[in-house]
Amino acid sequence: MCGITGVYAFTEAGRGALERLPAAVASLQHRGPDAGGVYLHGPLGLGHRRLSLIAPTASADQPFTSADGRYTLVFNGEIFNYGKLRKELEAKGASFRTDSDTEVLLHLYARAGQECLKKLTGFFALAIYDAVEESLFLARDRYGEKPLLYYKDADRFLFGSELIALLRLGVPRELDYTSLYQYLQLTYVPAPASMLQGVKKLQAGQSLYIRHQRVQENVWYRLPFDGEKVAHNPLSYIQQQAKLRKLLQQAVSDRLVADVPVGAFLSGGIDSSVVVALAAQQVPRLKTYAVGFPDQPFFDETRYARLVADKHGTDHTELRLSNAELYQNLSGMLDSLSEPFADSSALAVFALSRHVGQEVKAVLSGDGADELFAGYNKHRAEFKVLQGGFKASTVEKLKFIWDVLPKSRNSFAANKVRQLQRFAAGARLPPAERYWLWASWQQEDEALALLAPLNRQAAQSRLYRARKSRLLDYINKNLYDINNVLCADWRMVLANDMLPKIDLMGMAHGLEIRSPYLDHRLVKFAFSLPVSSKIDERQQKKILRDTFKDLLPNEVHRRPKQGFEIPLRAFLQSEGRCLVNDLLSEEFVRAQGVFDVQQVQQIRCLLGSEKAGLVQHTAWMLLVFQRWWQKYMS
């Protein structure tokens, strides 16, 4: 796991960015504290920071150049099947000078070119320079586990693992109001856009080939979903379970590959519990880690994590975070974001990663299972809408009641009212608009009202509608069911929220987070399953629960989904209040000119009242953005 960055200068003016390359590399040191390097060749410069997990010797440091001097690679990620690939290459005459997956990858590219990507099991963002062709090849893994951003103008092509590297290389700092508008709805900016005009995110499963100032974009991997094939799946449910067990066991085994110890996050939910159970079969006294909130029992899942740890004999650690301890991590978490990202649970992942990174360099996680097997509340809601019936229609008809009752995420009753209100609002919409409503934290009119009047037209433009339409194309397929929703989640929520969260928060502390559910063979199988294998009237993630019931404590097997969240309202009303008063002050907002002053002051007022639950997430989005603006744009 590492950080990469680079420059390809097209003109003399563009060569100025090469002088900034060492600063860009230094900005990524948190991603790779073990080693760093720069490669320069004429108009091309590559930079790398290394976190040593496989072949942790200096001979495998990057940038890594082939023995003949033609190819040079910078690479962020892990290739889990590198041992098998190495044997195949040696059989064809290749010789190696290290034991690294890096050298295997470079040999594979030299022989197979861009087609080599299809042979890889793992996750990666990479850049390979061909000194003979004077070409640069960049690629990102199938699902976007590892980030890669880039910028191109007439003089230069710049890229990096995080936006901070591109800022150090000198990209223009011009706010993209369409991106800000989407951020205020979703808490993140979906790829390929970023918060800055002109800076793009390479999308999952895509690659770029640059030669003679021309950038060719390719899609090398597409999500393997075909509604018609799913409808005719030949496997019985028992056979499906057997295959799932075999594939997930292999995925866990692959992600334990490292020359250093690997631990695991353990939330107490189904997803991470299954991963820990399978990993514990292979690693005696597996190190597991959970985070809890003793001041807020509603958000604390450590009891369930402890049951799993006891059942499988893991070496278990609980990190108990009070509001004061959350606040102690706040500044570091915000400073780790070079683009606004307002999933509030990132603060807990940051604090947990900070602790875990002192003991191990890599951990397993359960990310991706909800998007594969219909684990979110919105999947249950969609199932009920499509099923219809008396209960669904009654909830919809009672919307006028849900609209006026207290709603928040801070207690069981208030959260249930919030869910009923959102269900009633979405049930009367067509599928695409319903999906957008349930994937959003704010509705479009609410997000637009937050912007200063002069900025609203730039935000709600044709570009916004085009970006939104692209994100919803899986929902608009002819054969529509919950699998379409899962595909949309895979592209939008997983790729732009869940995966950036674990990458950014883990790598802020030099910690690699690996999810077995993102193994491409497992993903292909999961998207071949009918909806009935994933969700029914009684349970969600049905096949996952049924397949691994024998490995789970009864209390964990039976418990419903609980989202991983922090006690945000209590935090913002206590230790976080000074941040609210500073970054959302009338003086700051007015001088900034981005947001509507009156709207922001109303949110400040509500945050100090009993209605704080209505605005807590909006306030958090604003705070994260304001801190970013203060650091990078003011």
TrEMBL record:
InterPro entries the record matches: Asn_synth_AEB, Asn_synthase, ASN_synthetase/amidase, AsnB_N, GATase_2_dom, Ntn_hydrolases_N, Rossmann-like_a/b/a_fold
CDD domains (UniProt xref): Asn_synthase_B_C (cd01991), AsnB (cd00712)
Record-annotated Glutamine amidotransferase type-2 domain positions: 2-213
Listed EC numbers: 6.3.5.4
Superkingdom of source: Bacteria
The keyword Membrane is assigned to this record: no
Listed SUPFAM superfamilies: Adenine nucleotide alpha hydrolases-like, N-terminal nucleophile aminohydrolases (Ntn hydrolases)
Reaction(s) catalysed (UniProt annotation): L-aspartate + L-glutamine + ATP + H2O = L-asparagine + L-glutamate + AMP + diphosphate + H(+)
Listed Gene3D superfamilies: Glutamine Phosphoribosylpyrophosphate, subunit 1, domain 1, HUPs
First-level EC class: ligase
Biological or metabolic pathway of the protein: Amino-acid biosynthesis; L-asparagine biosynthesis; L-asparagine from L-aspartate (L-Gln route): step 1/1
The keyword Acyltransferase appears for this protein: no
Keywords: ATP-binding, Glutamine amidotransferase, Nucleotide-binding
Pfam families assigned to the protein according to its UniProt record, in alphabetical order: Asn_synthase (PF00733), GATase_7 (PF13537)
Similarity section: Belongs to the asparagine synthetase family.
Protein name, per record: asparagine synthase (glutamine-hydrolyzing)
